[in-house]
Specification:
Helix 8 (397-416) packs antiparallel against helix 10 (476-491). This protein is an alpha+beta fold. Residues 1-160, 165-173 and 260-292 have low confidence and may be disordered. The chain is elongated and about 140 Å long. The chain contains 14 helices and 15 strands. The longest helix is centred in the middle third of the chain and has 88 residues, at 177-264. The chain has helices at residues 32-35, 45-48, 52-61, 177-264, 333-338, 342-354, 385-392, 397-416, 465-468, 476-491, 501-510, 521-530, 546-550, 560-564; strands spanning 63-64, 72-74, 86-88, 95-96, 136-137, 142-143, 300-308, 312-319, 325-332, 363-368, 372-378, 419-420, 429-431, 437-439, 446-447. Strand 7 (300-308) and strand 8 (312-319) form a beta hairpin.
Length: 613
């Protein structure tokens, strides 16, 4: 039974058409008409099923728009289903079917509508029960018509199908497969071009970023170089300013020394023969400021030996010009070079020429011959403090305090001139006729502007831990040695001692000190602050310097100005029988060598090692 109304499908909502290309067979099977819908064919079965008026309308008004410009195939009006279709010549316009009727498969229903029908249908629609699309059979291609359907419609008067008098053209939409492929290729090409464009833009951005980074690095390097140059310029300016200040200070010092020189000229040895007058070199005035003649062996008479060392000895000598007594230190050049003491010897002369202090030995002059070096110094008649300490076994604390005060002021003065003494011990402390000390033997002293050196030297019992460790050390080693000296003066023995030097160094590194019971608490406290391996806690090496030691309770009541001016009476005054008395010195065997008596023509092969003598 036909539906009550005709269904109109919107072409815009139709699915995308499908296309299929096949090869036309030589003949179609007999079941073709019963299995698939055939559109616009010449089968008469369709017309026979219509009413007469419908047949007339179908033959006179049924038109269709062809899909392409090819010839359409149609069947004859015969009833033989096996007959092959024959071509119908037509143009690209509307297709008019005359004398034939459209045929449908058995069981299919068809409806043709007209613009004038009461159904109001304006398009021809084709539907089959199996939803098959009508097909034009061409010479080589069968084209699907997804947008065209045939629906059934029921007339207003009955159930018989109503055939309209006219039909509009059937719109059939198709597309070529190659067009879709081209579109896809175009899309791919566009995508590739877009990718290339994006890659190009990305490369441009990366290049710009690299250029910016290079520019920034260049700017940073330029700024850093400018800062370094400015810093270097400032450092150079500071160095120049410091040099100018030092030059001014030296000029002022030289002026002061010149005044002192005029005052002490009468104390210098004077020659007995004016025509051969020789002025001894005066230690108080730097050598470069005054033109002076050197001493020689003919200026002195050698009496006896006062002490001996590894590569020389000290003699008591008397000037042939003023009959005053001096101590002459004689060093063998060959031994100095062999024992690698050239630098120490030159340092001793240089430092003694530059320093001047009430508690330091005075150097009057130096000279040399082809074998020996000679240094003329004050003769300190009281002998060594070591000898007094051995006779006394130990000092009371007030006696030890007196000598410690004078040693402290001498070390403070040396450190202010960037000099490290490095050999403090009782043997190197001499007593003058009034009992005040004079520090002698500057063989290990060194001028250290940077306050650091690495040489392993000194007396084993008095070595600081940092010297034993072969680390860089500075002025703090002298404050350690002063602590050892204080301990030995008060106890009669040093805090660390052993005949085996390796064991001795181990005890020093361990830092364990046993204090005698008679040590007062203030003395023990000061010794603990001096005999510490921690340089950040050692007194004298802190921010306060030597003042930290002076303010310690053990020195309570000490007037340091009186100490410096030597107006405090010494606790021990040596016995002196005359100016050239040597009773306070030990006896030593004399050397058989006669100084200055050498074979004729002997060359001075080592003189270049000691240019300042």
């Amino acid at each position: 039974m036909l539906p009550a109304h005709a269904e109109i499908n919107d072409p815009g909502r139709d699915p995308q058409p499908s296309y299929q290309t096949t090869t036309r067979p030589s003949s179609y099977p007999s079941a073709y008409n019963s299995s698939r819908s055939t559109v616009l064919t010449g089968d008469s079965g369709y017309q026979d099923s219509l009413r007469p008026e419908a047949k007339a309308a179908a033959s006179s008004h049924l038109t269709a728009t062809p899909l392409n410009n090819s010839s359409l195939l149609t069947k004859d009006s015969s009833n033989n289903p096996n007959d092959l279709p024959r071509p119908i010549n037509t143009d690209l316009g509307a297709l008019s079917i005359n004398g034939s009727a459209a045929a449908t498969n058995a069981g299919h229903s068809s409806a043709l509508t007209s613009p004038n029908s009461n159904l109001g249908l304006d398009r021809l629609q084709l539907n089959s029960p199996q939803q098959h699309s009508a097909a034009f059979v061409g010479s080589t291609v069968a084209t699907a018509l997804p947008t065209t359907t045939i629906t059934t419609a029921t007339s207003t008067t009955g159930t018989e199908p109503f055939i309209p008098h006219s039909m509009q053209s059937v719109e059939m939409v198709s597309a070529d497969a190659t067009l879709t492929e081209r579109q896809q290729l175009d899309q791919q090409r566009q995508q590739l071009e877009q990718q290339k464009q994006q890659q190009y833009l990305l490369q441009q951005q990366q290049q710009q970023q690299q250029q910016q980074q290079q520019q920034q690095q260049q700017q940073q390097q330029a700024a850093l170089q400018a800062q370094q140059q400015e810093l270097l310029r400032q450092q150079q300016a500071q160095q120049q300013q410091q040099q100018q200040q030092q030059q001014q200070q030296q000029a002022a010092r030289l002026a002061q020394l010149s005044q002192q020189h005029s005052q002490i000229q009468q104390q210098q040895p004077q020659p007995q023969q004016p025509q051969q007058q020789q002025v001894p070199e005066v230690r108080h005035v730097p050598q470069q400021t005054t033109a002076r003649r050197k001493f020689n062996l003919n200026d002195f008479h050698i009496h006896r030996t006062l002490g001996t060392g590894s590569f020389g000895r000290v003699h008591l000598v008397q000037s042939r010009f003023n009959s005053r007594f001096y101590a002459m230190k004689v060093l063998k050049k060959s031994e100095v070079v062999r024992l690698k003491q050239v630098e120490h010897t030159n340092n001793e002369k240089m430092i003694l020429e530059r320093v001047e202090h009430p508690f330091l030995i005075n150097l009057w002059g130096t000279f040399q011959d082809v074998r020996n070096l000679y240094m003329v110094m004050d003769y300190v008649v009281g002998g060594e403090l070591f000898s007094v300490l051995r006779r006394s076994q130990r000092f009371p604390e007030h006696v030890a305090r007196f000598y410690t005060c004078e040693v402290l002021l001498a070390l403070e003065y040396l450190h202010s001139h960037a000099v490290i003494y490095r050999d403090l011990k009782p043997e190197n402390l001499l007593l003058d006729s009034l009992g005040h000390i004079k520090i002698t033997d500057f063989g290990f002293a060194k001028h250290v502007p940077q306050n650091i050196t690495w040489t392993l030297c000194g007396t084993p019992d008095y070595l600081a831990p940092e010297i034993i460790q072969s680390k860089g050390y500075g002025k703090a080693v002298d404050w350690w040695s002063m602590g050892v000296l204080m301990f030995e003066m008060c106890a009669g023995f040093p805090p660390f001692f052993d005949e085996d030097h390796i064991k001795l160094y181990g005890k020093i590194m361990a830092g364990k000190v046993k204090y005698p019971a008679h040590f007062q608490p203030a003395l023990k406290d000061l010794l603990k602050r001096l005999l510490t391996a921690d340089l950040t806690k050692r007194y004298g090496n802190l921010k306060g310097g030597a003042n930290d030691i002076k303010r310690h309770p053990w020195f309570e009541g000490v007037d340091w100005d009186l100490v410096y001016s030597r107006r405090i009476e010494a606790p021990y005054r040596p016995t002196i029988r005359g100016e050239g008395d040597t009773s306070n010195f030990d006896d030593y065997p004399e050397d058989a060598e006669q100084y200055g008596v050498y074979p004729d023509g002997e060359e001075d092969a080592l003189g270049t090692y000691f240019p300042g003598f």
